Amino acid sequence: xxxxLQFEFMRNALLAGLLASIMCGIIGTLVVVNRIVxxxxxIAHAAYGGIGLAFFFGFSYLWGIMGFAxxxxxxxAAVNLRAKQRADTIIGVLWAxxxxxxxILLDITPGYNVDLMSYLxxxxxxxxxxxxxLMLILDGVVVLFVGYYYHDLVxxxxxxxxxxxxxxxxxxxxxSMITMIALLVVMIVQVVGLILVIxxxxxPPYIAEKYSGSLSRMMVYAVLLNLLFTTTGLWLSYHFNLTxxxxxxxxxxxxFFISILVxxxxxxxxxxxx
Length: 274
Hints:
The chain has 13 helices and no strands. By secondary structure, it is mainly α. It has a single domain (about 5-265), classed as Orthogonal Bundle (ABC transporter involved in vitamin B12 uptake, BtuC). α1 (about 10-35) runs antiparallel to α12, α2 runs antiparallel to α11 and α11 (about 195-210) runs parallel beside α13. The model has no long low-confidence stretch (mean pLDDT about 85).
C-alpha cells in the first residue's frame, strides 16, 4: 500500500476514506440508535433521481444529488413524524420513484454516456481535491452540530418523551438529523456509491454499540471502524484490481458476521439464586 501513495489519486482516496469515516461514524450512530435505517436507505436510493435531473438539465451531479436528497429527506421525515404507521410504505414508494425517475431521465438525456456503475457502487479513486474540501466542510458542520446539541441528541435518541419534558426541540433536532443524512449521501456517493451507502452507515455503529457505554464512545468506535474498513477495502481493491466501494463493504460485512459469531459463542453469564 505504501508504494501506491506515490499516486495522487490514491492519496485523495485515502483522505476521502478518512473524511467519510468521520461523518459516517457520527451520523451512522444516530441512525442506528434512533432506528431510522430504512428511512436513511430511502433517502440514499431516492437521491438517484437527482443524478438524472442533473444530467438531463446539464448541471453538476453533486448539486443534483444534494437538492433531490434534501427534498426527499424533508418529505420522508415529515411522513415519519405524521404517519408512523404507514411511514415504511410511503418511504418505500418514494425510494422506488426516486430511482425510477433517475433512470428514465438518464434514458432520455441526449448524448447519454454516463458511467452508471460509478454512481451506484462508488468510484473513490476519482475523488478530486475540490471534493475533499467539500467533504471537510461537511465534516466540520456535523462535528460542530453534534458537539453543540450532544446532550439533546442523547435525550432524543434514548427517550423522546423525556427529551420533550426537558424542553428539547425534538422536531428541529429530528429534521436536522435527517438533513445531515442527506448531506452524507452527497458526500460519500463517490466512496461507496448510492447502493452501498447504507452498509457504511449501519455496520460500524452496530459493531461499536456492543463495546460502548455511551453515545460519544459509540461514535468514536464507529469512526475508527469505518476508517479500518475503508483503508483495508482500498488496499484489497488496489492489490486485486477490485471495485473499491464493493471491497470496502465486503470488509465491513465480514467483520459484521464475525462480531455476530463472537457474540453468539460468548458464554452467557448465569444468575444463581440461593
